[in-house]
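Ligand: BES. Inputs:
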Amino acid sequence: MDIVKTYIEKNKNRFIGELFEMLRVPSVSALKESEPKMEQMARLVCQHLLKAGADMAEVMTTSGWPVVFGEKIINRNLPTIMVYGHYDVQPPDPLDLWKTPPFEPEIKDDKIYARGADDDKGQLFMQIKAFEYMVAENKLPCNVKFLIEGEEEIGSPALKEFCKENKSILSTDVILVSDTNIHSLKKPVITTGLRGIAYFEISVTGPDRDLHSGLYGGAVANPVNVLSGVIAGMKDPEGKIKIPGFYDDVLEVDLNERKLLNEINLNEKEFAASINVEELSGEKGYTTVERIGIRPTLDINGIWGGYTGEGAKTILPSIASVKVSTRLVPNQRPEKVKEQLIRYLKEATPKSVRIELKTIQDGNAYVCPWDSKEVQSAAKALEKTLGVKPIPNRGGGSIPVITVLEEVLSAKSVLLGFGLESDAIHSPNENYPLKNLYKGIETLPWFYHFYCK
Ligand code: BES
Ligand code: MN
Ligand code: MN
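Predicted complex:
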């Protein structure tokens, strides 16, 4: 199948032009004002699927941003692979830190710079081009479906409902996803697990208005002080989360798998240097790879309250708020974490303030056994094109809809991603190396080959 390399070589220039067209659309799912751009982006994905050889592709409306569904059915008796991906991107802010504008893609040092260059337009593009190659060269060994959504970066609120309603058209044997990292082309990994998420906004309200801090200070509970104490009590100095019951459902990973995960030999010094910190920090008793992959976490994502403008304003604020997210591991449930957090907040705060908690996002963790047919087909494909056997890796990020898809469609998913940690996804100057883009296009047909064999 070296023809795939020839095919890529011959079509490289066209590929870049097509991917750039996608990267120019600011399909930021978090913003309401993106509506025309989300529509435009969905139509563009549709056109790309049809041009690549899909029998049909359409933009389907949901209660949120549109979904693109497409398929090519060559023989109902053959297996079906469904590609999942997302066309939405994270907001590009802060804009002034970008060296080139986020929606004006550019190639520099053999990397494509743009919001979405990796996550997930670049990786989705590899899937479409691998499909195009197999159709063009008559190499498609099975039926293919595409489910491309526009809400992944906001937790896929509409897709969950959409899947249940469209279960029959989505039926598949396996779900193939390129939306994770490979670590490096020399030391490839396959993501066999992702963390779940439970994300909340908490507010602490005291008096019904900001008060004079001289006339009232000392006599009335200050919501910012109270919230600060509550936050400080959430973790101990050893990095353990202190919410009672939080670890009850955490499954310990056996030493064998832990050993395998650590084979990646993460260079902690380089890792720390890459983000400009003196040293790393985390839960005692676990390596950095383990802290990210197999342990749950709790982080404050944002905090506000009181006066933050210029100079002084002597007030005792009425309200303080915080956004807090937990990353969860297999067997932990977001609903249970929510109950535990509510109970903790009740106990940790005086009657003088009122607490409100709102769920913003939730999703379960994902795991796929290393020795499954799905993952092994991906491992063989990577070994074929990279010449090295990949090792398993647990990714710290989340794709909450994966476990929903698996459950509704009774199919396993495989995460065959080609991103690098240095791609700066969600950050300014997101980028994707051309090498990874082309390796992805070259490798994916081999997954089809081994899976259908
Ligand atoms: N593609 C990422 C997830 C990812 C990236 C997993 C690299 C493993 C390696 C995805 O687009 C993402 O950012 N997910 C969000 C989900 C959240 C918004 C619910 C995340 O993890 O923060
Ligand atoms: Mn993604
Ligand atoms: Mn993302």
